[in-house]
Amino acid sequence: MANWERKSQYLLKEIVKFRTYIDILTLAQTQKEKIYAEREANGESRPGTKDGAAGCSPSDQVDGAKEAPKASEPANA
User: pTM above 0.90?
Assistant: First the structure.
């Protein structure tokens, strides 16, 4: 029975850890949107990013998926 208790405690700690992580990400997103709104109100433009998402509105959802790489042709020697 002790093994089940240890497993249960471990899973509970993991749940708390991931919920905390999600809460922090949500807070960071909210702060980011607030800063961008303040900048737009002041007439400043958004900074460019590596992926070219400078023109996206904060409400746009991006899943981060990239196009699959193309298969290269086999080299015939």
Answer: no
